[in-house]
Amino acid sequence: MTKVTLRGYIVVPEADLHLVKSELVKHIALTRAEKGCLTFEVIQSDTNPRQFSVYEEFTDKESFGAHQARVKQSRWGEVTVNVERHYKITEES
User: Fold this and answer.
1) pTM for this one?
2) At 10, which CATH number?
3) Which of 15, 30, 56, 77 is most buried, most CB within 10 Å of its CB?
């Protein structure tokens, strides 16, 4: 199995910040319940309220791919359409 790890951050436009924050709790809960999710953290910066660090681990490529597909079609995907994503994805056997 090849574990997939995503590290990075997102920057939320000021106009979308309230909506993104209101959807975040549900997004975290849904992701953590997904098959293959080992870790999923999204934490708002103390110094820049528009920036959120993101760290996630999935057991394999298939689980990570299923997560990505679900997110694109979810409410979270809708409310974060204008978010800047800065991620590094690594795979580890």
Assistant:
1) 0.95
2) 3.30.70.100
3) 56
